[in-house]
Write a structure and sequence with these properties.
- This protein is of the alpha+beta class.
- It contains 3 helices and 5 strands; from the N terminus they run E-E-E-E-H-H-H-E.
- It has a 3-stranded antiparallel sheet with strand order 3-5-4.
Length: 126
Amino acid sequence: METSKVFLRDMNTGEELEILPGTVEVSWTDKDTHPIDIHHSYKFECSVNLPLMNEVAKELFFGSPGYKTACRLADELNDLIEEYHAPGTPRRERRAIRREFVKIYRIFRKHCKECKINFKFVRPEK
């Protein structure tokens, strides 16, 4: 399992808050549905395990509409997380962002399962 560090930066002061490392990779074959919440999930990325494919096939897959859609949805999730954790976001707006995150995450997970795309994200260790 790969670990990485994620920092949230206060743009006004430049202060960085380290989020503890803990990368979680979810396979499209996973039946496990651990709760993935906007409070403890950061840096969504799409990944594919294609060890036997040649370079041309990999390029075709990474250029496919299914993979591009998965990457776009991951970017949307990351944008919502950033917006949710931004300093000064009102409580009412955070609740709306959280609902949008849950909605997009369900679409993202279903799409990744249909297209056989794995995804990973960072979850702080407890």
